[in-house]
Amino acid sequence: MKKITQIICIFLTVTSMSAQQEKGIIGYTNWLDNWTEFKPHKTEYGDPNQILAGNISVNTKLLKRNIYVLQGNVYVTNNAVLTIEPGTLIIGDFETKGTLVVTKGAQIIADGQETDPIVFTSNRSMKKAGDWGGVVILGDAPINKFGNIGSYNLDLDPSLTTYGGDNASSNSGILRYVRIEFAGKKVKGSDTFNGLTIAGVGNKTILENIMVSYSGGDSFAFYGGDVNATKFVSYKSINDDYKFTQGIQCRLYNSLAVRSSYLSSNKDGSRCMEVKSYEKKNETDFTKNQTLVTASNITMLNDSENIKADIQSGLVKEAVYVGENASLEMKRSVISGFSPAVLLDSKTEVNDVNLKKVQFQEMFFNLCKGNIFTEYNTNNEDLEHWYGNSLFFNVSAQSDNKETFVDIFNAKKPDFRLQLGKITASSGNR
């Protein structure tokens, strides 16, 4: 009997520890180690000895022993496969604003390793957000625009930048253990590129362990398609960390967004997550799937050391924005240091139908000035009553980030997992 009691006690202890670790990014070890870089400004890279330019129309392999410079707009076309060896360095050219575009039907196999990631970065000595274009992957999975076809133009060749189709299971290749640094160039009279643009991409594409840091546009932008995304990291983006639109069906898991109070777009501000069904309503086919994002074990935080002062100064806005007709199902996630945590589009009526489209369960809202509001409305009693229901297991607190996370200010190896025992707040919204 004593032995059985000991086993039960051990089981309960382990279960309790696991439960405490379940919110936000998870892992028995810090999965950010080895392949990420939180000080890319100070990283020394070698000089390129190979040039990538024009069209890549046949199967091509980039080798680790070389350093490549991406000059101008480079397109992978003609159903070709671009394979990149682990540890390969590709440098986006500042003068020509180098951009890599994997066109519809082509593939990229960038399969790095934890100890040997593939890196895309800037060639400037003083690197800044927006130094070069970024990486664009275009596929033939469904989108919700009329005709099921979109075009990612900006300053690209319109004949090579269409995306969308009928194949939700299409395969655009592999991006795994990849870093993209200082991308997101500004296009005159238009918009900005993103670190990684994923448009009309299908669910056979493998997207894991990808870090985008210091992007001048969004870190990750999803335009339609059907994708699984795991262990993504967005760090100090100027625009949004994760943008979803055009009917994307996305399952985002165990991923991180770190914002700064002092980095934000002048256009409409910046958020950790923007979930919309469309950009232009008159181009949207409402008979098709509208945007659905299922997000679990996500950590979104403002890493300021004085969040309350930044909120009071108006430097901080919401972490998550959900647009009209879009659906977001978020579970076991952490939102720390925002004002408020979540904002719903002003056109979204607070009723049973819409509240079932926007779900928050087992959440930890921390250091936020309010949790869930409707845009332009300071009264959130209905939303508090709904999301504060004990059945959803949402909790809130006002705990300092240093105490809440394991070690977020470690310059070399930050750890953004929750500290054990830190979810001790009472349930409900504030």
Structure overview:
The protein is mostly beta strands and 430 residues long. The chain has one domain (23-418). 10% of the residues lie in helices and 34% in strands. It contains 5 helices and 32 strands. The protein has helices spanning 2-21, 307-312, 352-357, 381-387, 401-404; strands at 50-52, 55-56, 60-62, 67-70, 73-76, 81-84, 89-92, 99-102, 107-111, 118-122, 134-138, 150-151, 162-163, 173-181, 196-199, 206-213, 220-223, 226-235, 242-245, 249-259, 273-275, 292-302, 320-322, 327-331, 334-336, 342-344, 358-361, 364-366, 372-374, 395-397, 405-407, 415-418. The strands form 4 sheets. It has a 17-stranded parallel sheet that branches. The chain has an 11-stranded parallel sheet with strand order 2-5-8-11-15-17-19-21-23-26-29. Strand 31 (405-407) and strand 32 form a beta hairpin. The radius of gyration is 22 Å and the shape is globular. The chain starts with a helix and ends in a 12-residue tail after the last strand. The model is unreliable at 1-20 and 424-430 (pLDDT under 50). It comes from Flavobacterium pectinovorum. This is T9SS C-terminal target domain-containing protein.
